[in-house]
Write a structure and sequence with these properties.
The complex is a heterodimer of chains A (328) and B (295). By secondary structure, chain A is mostly helical. Chain A has helices at residues 21-61, 64-67, 81-112, 115-130, 133-159, 165-168, 179-203, 207-215, 220-249, 252-257, 275-282, 288-324, and strands at 69-72, 77-80. The mean pLDDT of chain A is 90. Chain B has a domain at 42-132 and 203-290: P-loop containing nucleotide triphosphate hydrolases (Rossmann fold, 3-Layer(aba) Sandwich). Chain B has a ten-stranded mixed beta sheet with strand order 5-4-1-2-10-9-3-8-7-6, with helices on both faces. In chain B, helix 3 (138-148) crosses helix 4, helix 3 (138-148) runs parallel beside helix 6 and helix 4 (155-165) crosses helix 6 (185-198). The chains are: A mainly alpha (328), B alpha/beta (295). Chain A: Residues 1-23 are annotated as: Disordered.
Chain lengths: 328, 295
C-alpha cells in the first residue's frame, strides 16, 4: 500500500517467479542428476580400465578363458572355468543356508519377538556383520573346518552310496577346507545383511494387510504366507541379491578356507577355488599375461554380478506386475 | 455358561449365501431357525476396553441381533471402532489391549480361556475402513480364506458364489487373474466383502466400510449390505449418520465423555431401533448429535 512498490505489478495477482525458488529447484535437479551419472561413470570406467588391463589374456585365450578348465600360468594357459564354478557353488551353498535362516530371524523379529527383545537382537546380528572377514577366515580354517570333517565323513558314509546324491556328498578332503566349509562360513557372513534388509521389508507390510488375513481366521503363519510374503517378494529378492553379491565377492575368508585346488567336481566336500580367492593369492607373484588373466577373472566376476542383478530386477518387475497390476 | 448353540460348531451347516431370499425386514428371512431371527447372536454385557491402563470405552451393553444390521455411530474417539474390534478379538493384536465385561456369541463367552481367537475370526469376519485386498489376483484374494480354513469343494464355484454375493462377479469374471489392486476403490471394497463371505462367517463386522469411497460406490455397498443381511448378521461402524439411518435396523450411539479426572472415555449413550433413535431419541445427547448440534 506504499507508493514505492508501485513500480512492479500488483503483488496480489503477480504469478511470475520471484526470488530463487525455481532456480534452486533447477540446480537441485542438476545436482542429483550429476550424482546419478557419476555412479554410472565410475562403473563404466571400472569396466573399461579393467578390461583393457585384462586384454592380453582375453586376446590370448578368447572364449576359452571362461570355458576351459586349465589354469597353467607357466604355460600361459588361463582357462578359469574351475574358479567360476567354485564361486558359483560356494555362493549357492551360502544362499541355501543363509536365506531361510535370515528370513526366519527377520520374521521372528518383526512378527513374533516381544518388543523389548527386538533392539538387543538386532544389535547382536549387526555385530556379526562387524566381524572382519579375515577373522571369519581364520576361524573357519582353524576351528570350524577340522570340527566338520567327522560330520562330512558321516554324511558321506550315509549318503555316499546313493546315485547323484552320493556324487554331491563325496569323500571329504581331510583338512575340511572345501566348498562346503567355505559356503557355511559365507552363509554366516551374509546372514546379517539379508536379515537386516528382510526385516525392513517386512516392516513395510501394511497393518491393514495383516489384519485382513487375521480377520479371515488366519494363523500367524498363514498370515505371513498370505499377506507378508506377497508384499515382500521384491524386497526379499533384493536382500538375497545383496547377500549373493557379498558372497561372490568375498575374498580373504574364502582364500583361506576353500582349499585352493583347481578342479571341477560335484563333490561339495572337495577342495576348490573361487575367482576372488585366486586373484588375491596369485596376483603378488604374477607378471605380464598372468596378471592380465587375474584381472580378467575380476572382469568376469563383475559381469556375472551385473547379469545376476539385472536378472533379479526383471524377476521382481514381473512379480510386481502380477501382484499389483502395474510395476511400481 | 448356557447350552452352546449347536450351530456354533457346525459352520458347514450354515445356510448358503441365499441372495434373493424373501425379505421382510425385521422378521424371519430364510434362516434355518426362523424363531431365532432377530434374536441376539452376540451380546455385550458391561464391556469395557482398556489399552494398558487407559479405559478407552467403558460399560457397553447391547445385543447384536441375527440377520439385522446394527450400526454404531458417534463422534471421533467415542470408542465405536474399539468396541467393534472387540467383537472378533482383533483387539488381541494390539499390545496391552484388554477387554473387561462379557462378550457372548451364541451364549459362549468370546474371551473364555479355551476360545481360539482364530476360530472366532473365522465365524465373525471383518471388512475394514480402507479397502485392503492382498497383492494377489482377484481369484486368489477370495480363495485365500477357503484355503487357510481348509474349506473343501470346488474352489472356483465357491469363489464365483462369493463374488456374486458381493455383487462383483459380473464386473470381474473375465479378469479373475488380474491383481485385486487393479480394481477401483469401490470394487476393491466389494472384493474384500467377497473375501469375507467366502469363508461363510456368521457375523460380518464393517469398520467404516465406505469412508474411502465415492457416493456411487457407497450406494452399491449399502445395497449390498441389505442383500447380505438376509444371510448374515452385520455390525457396521460409520461416522455417517445418514448411512446408519439408511441401512441399519438398530443403532447404537456412542459419545466421548470426560470423567472427573479429565480422562476421555467412550460410552454407549443409547441403543434402539434405528427409526426410533433418529426420530424420537430418549437421550438429550443423542438428539443433539443427530440434529447436528454436536459432533
Amino acid at each position: 500500500m506504499t507508493t514505492q512498490t508501485q513500480t512492479g505489478p500488483d503483488p496480489k495477482t503477480e504469478l511470475s517467479s520471484r526470488g530463487g525458488g525455481p532456480r534452486a529447484d533447477r540446480s537441485f535437479q542438476v545436482l542429483t542428476l550429476a550424482a546419478g551419472l557419476l555412479v554410472l561413470a565410475v562403473l563404466a570406467l571400472i569396466l573399461i580400465t579393467t578390461t583393457r588391463e585384462a586384454w592380453p589374456a582375453f586376446r590370448e585365450m578368447g572364449l576359452r578363458f571362461i570355458t576351459q578348465n586349465r589354469w597353467d600360468p607357466p604355460s600361459e594357459i588361463f582357462g578359469g572355468l574351475a574358479f567360476i564354478y567354485g564361486t558359483a557353488i560356494v555362493s549357492l551353498i551360502a544362499l541355501i543356508f543363509a536365506v531361510p535362516v535370515s528370513i526366519g530371524i527377520a520374521l521372528f523379529l518383526t512378527e513374533l519377538a516381544p518388543r523389548r527383545l527386538r533392539a538387543p537382537a538386532v544389535t547382536v546380528i549387526d555385530l556379526l556383520a562387524a566381524v572382519p572377514s579375515v577373522v571369519f577366515g581364520l576361524w573357519g580354517v582353524l576351528v570350524v573346518a577340522p570340527k566338520l570333517v567327522p560330520i562330512y565323513q558321516w554324511i558321506h558314509d550315509v549318503l555316499g552310496g546313493i546315485p547323484v546324491i552320493g556324487a554331491i556328498f563325496g569323500q571329504p578332503v581331510g583338512s575340511g577346507r572345501n566348498f562346503m566349509t567355505a559356503g557355511l562360513i559365507l552363509a554366516i557372513m551374509i546372514t546379517p545383511i539379508i536379515t537386516s534388509i528382510a526385516r525392513e521389508v517386512f516392516d513395510t507390510v501394511p497393518r491393514a494387510d495383516k489384519d485382513a488375513a487375521l480377520a479371515l481366521g488366519a494363523t500367524r503363519w498363514e498370515m505371513i504366507t498370505g499377506a507378508v510374503f506377497p508384499h515382500s517378494f521384491g524386497g526379499l529378492v533384493g536382500a538375497v541379491i545383496l547377500g549373493l553379491g557379498r558372497a561372490m565377492g568375498e575374498t580373504i575368508a574364502i582364500a583361506l578356507i576353500i582349499g585352493s585346488s583347481t578342479q571341477i567336481t560335484a563333490n561339495v566336500f572337495a577342495s576348490g577355488n573361487a575367482m576372488p580367492a585366486v586373484i588375491v593369492s596369485q596376483i603378488g607373484e604374477s607378471t605380464g599375461t598372468f596378471t592380465a588373466a587375474l584381472i580378467g577373472l575380476g572382469v568376469v566376476l563383475f559381469i556375472m554380478t551385473v547379469i545376476i542383478n539385472t536378472a533379479a530386477q526383471a524377476i521382481v518387475r514381473r512379480a510386481e506386475i502380477r501382484m499389483r497390476g502395474t510395476a511400481s | 455358561m448356557t447350552t452352546p448353540d449347536p450351530r456354533v460348531d457346525t459352520v458347514q451347516d450354515r445356510p448358503s449365501v441365499s441372495i434373493g431370499a424373501p425379505s421382510s425386514g425385521w422378521g424371519a428371512v430364510g434362516v434355518d431357525t426362523p424363531q431365532a431371527a432377530g434374536a441376539p447372536v452376540m451380546d455385550l454385557r458391561d464391556v469395557s476396553v482398556f489399552y494398558g491402563n487407559y479405559e478407552a470405552v467403558r460399560g457397553t451393553s447391547m445385543p447384536i441381533r441375527q440377520n439385522q444390521i446394527t450400526a454404531m455411530i458417534g463422534p471421533s474417539g467415542c470408542g465405536k471402532s474399539t468396541i467393534l474390534r472387540s467383537l472378533n478379538r482383533m483387539n488381541d493384536l494390539v499390545p496391552g489391549a484388554r477387554v473387561a465385561g462379557k462378550v457372548t456369541y451364541h451364549g459362549q463367552d468370546l474371551y473364555a480361556k479355551d476360545v481360539d481367537p482364530i476360530q472366532v475370526r473365522r465365524r465373525i469376519g471383518m471388512v475394514f475402513q480402507k479397502p485392503n485386498p492382498f497383492p494377489k489376483s482377484i481369484f486368489d484374494n477370495v480363495a485365500y480364506g477357503l484355503k487357510i480354513n481348509g474349506i473343501k469343494g470346488n474352489v472356483h464355484d465357491q469363489v464365483e458364489e462369493a463374488l456374486t454375493g458381493a455383487a462383483l462377479w459380473d464386473e470381474v469374471k473375465d479378469k479373475l487373474k488380474q491383481s485385486g489392486l487393479s480394481l477401483s476403490g469401490g470394487q476393491q471394497q466389494r472384493l474384500c466383502i467377497a473375501r469375507t463371505i467366502a469363508v461363510r462367517p456368521d457375523v460380518i463386522l464393517m469398520d467404516e466400510p465406505c469412508s474411502a469411497l465415492d457416493p456411487i460406490a457407497t450406494g452399491k455397498i449399502e445395497d449390498l449390505m441389505h442383500e447380505l443381511a438376509k444371510s448374515y448378521t452385520i455390525v457396521i461402524v460409520t461416522h455417517n449418520m445418514q448411512q446408519a439411518a439408511r441401512v441399519s435396523h438398530f443403532t447404537a450411539f456412542f459419545t466421548a465423555e470426560v470423567d472427573e479426572k479429565q480422562v476421555r472415555h467412550g460410552r454407549l449413550v443409547e441403543f434402539s431401533e434405528t427409526g426410533k433413535l433418529f426420530t424420537n431419541p430418549t437421550d438429550k445427547r443423542t438428539e443433539d448429535y443427530i440434529t447436528g448440534r454436536f459432533g
